[in-house]
Amino acid sequence: MSRHRFTLAALATLAVPGLDVAVTRTFTGGGDGQHDAALLTATGGEHLVVRAPADAQAAARLTAEVEVLEALTPGVRARLPFAVPTTRGVLPAPQAVVSSYLPGVRLQPGAVGADSALAGSIGRAIAAIHELPTAVVAEAELPSATAAECVRGVEELIDRVDSTGEAPLELVNRWSAAAADPTLWGFQPCVVHGGLAAETLLVSPKDDPEPRVTGVLGWAGLQVGDPARDLAWVLGLPVPGAAGTVLDTYTAVRGRNADSALARRALLYAELEIARWLLHGVDRGDATVADDAVQMLEALLTAVLEGTAGTLVGERLPTLTVTEVERMLDARRQRAASASRAPLAAQASRSSSTE
C-alpha cells in the first residue's frame, strides 16, 4: 500500500531535525515502483525529495546509494558537469531518505537526435564519471573488479540463463564466443556508475537553447569495472545516429582511455540485459516477465539471423537459417507446453486411481 504524501512528510521531519515543511506534493519522479516519494518545499524555499522503500530489496539499494553519495565529496562533485543529489537525512532501516531535489526533466530517448548538443552532453557526462579517480571507490570500500573478473561475471550470467532452457542456443553461442574473444576484454577498469539508463539522467527543458544533462540519479551501483556497462543503454536510442554521436563524443573526451572494443562490449551487455530480465522472471516465478523476456530473445535471434543485430566478435559464427530457427522455436514451445501439461496429467492419473 502506497504511503500518503503527508505520511512521507512526517517521516522527513523525523529524518531531518528542524525541517519545517510548507508544501507537500506527490512526486512521481522518485516513485519508480521501488519507492513511495514526495516532493517537499521547506518554509525557507528549499526543495527536497523524501523516498520510502517499498520492500527489503529497495531498502538495501537505498542504503547503498546513501553510502555512495557520502563518498562523492565536494571535490569529486566539482569534476562532474552535472548535479548529484545530496543526502539531507536518513530515518534508520531505512524507513525514509531525504535528499536534495535536482531540477530537470527525465531524459526521453526519442529526444536525443543525431549530431545534437544533447547527444554530445550525454557522452561528456558519462566520460566525466569514468574519468573520476579510482581512489574514490577504493576509499569508500565500494566494489572493484578487474577485466578478468568482469569476463567471469559475464560467463556466469551466460551459464545461468542457458540453464533455464529458455534462451536460444544460437544466442548462447554468440555470447559465449564474445566472452572467449580476448580482443574484447583488454580494457582498463575505471569508475562506473553501474546503473545508467535514460531514466537516471535529468536534462534541461526542451525549450533550452543548449540542451544538456543537468543531473544524474541512481548511484547505488558505483564501482570500478567495465566502462561499457554504462554505455549499453545508449545503443537503444531510437534516432539513427544518436548513439554514434554519444559514443564519438565519449571517445573524444577520454582519448587513450577509451578502448577500441568498447562499442562491441556495450552491445554484449545490452543483449545480456534481456538475459537478466529472463532470470528475474524465472527466479521470482513470474511467468509474465519470463514470457516477455523469451519474446525479446526471439526478436533478438531474428535480428542476428538477418544480420542486423551487430557483430560481437571479429568473425561471425555460422548461423542457422530462418526456417531452422522457426523449427527450433516451435520445438521449444512444444516442450514447454508438454512440461506444463505434465503436472495436470499426473494429477488426473492420481484422481482416477483413487476412484
Give an account of the 3D structure.
The chain has 355 residues and is an alpha+beta fold. A hairpin with a 4-residue loop joins strand 2 and strand 3 (47-53). The strands form 3 sheets. Strands 1-2-3-5-4 form a 5-stranded antiparallel sheet. Helix 6 packs antiparallel against helix 7. The two termini are 46 Å apart. It has 2 domains: 5-101, Phosphorylase Kinase, domain 1; 106-327, Alpha-Beta Complex (Aminoglycoside 3'-phosphotransferase, Chain: A, domain 2). The protein is built from 11 helices and 10 strands.
List the helices and strands and how they pair.
Blueprint: H1 5-15, E1 21-26, E2 35-42, E3 47-53, H2 56-71, H3 74-77, E4 87-91, E5 96-100, E6 105-106, H4 117-130, H5 135-139, H6 147-163, H7 169-180, E7 190-192, E8 201-203, E9 213-216, E10 223-225, H8 242-254, H9 262-284, H10 287-305, H11 322-353
Number of domains: 2
Query: What is the CATH topology descriptor of the largest domain?
Result: Aminoglycoside 3'-phosphotransferase, Chain: A, domain 2
What is the assembly state of the chains in this entry?
Answer: single chain
Sheet with most strands: 5 strands, antiparallel
Biggest sheet: strand arrangement: 1-2-3-5-4
Give the CATH H-level superfamily of the largest domain: Aminoglycoside phosphotransferase (APH), C-terminal lobe
Mean pLDDT: 90
Number of strands: 10
Summed up, the helix count is: 11
Return the string of H and E elements. HEEEHHEEEHHHHEEEEHHHH
Percent in strands: 5-15%
Query: What coarse outline follows from CA principal-axis ratios?
Result: globular
Low-confidence sequence ranges? 315-319, 339-355
What is the gyration radius calculated from CA atoms? 23 Å
Distance between the termini: 46 Å
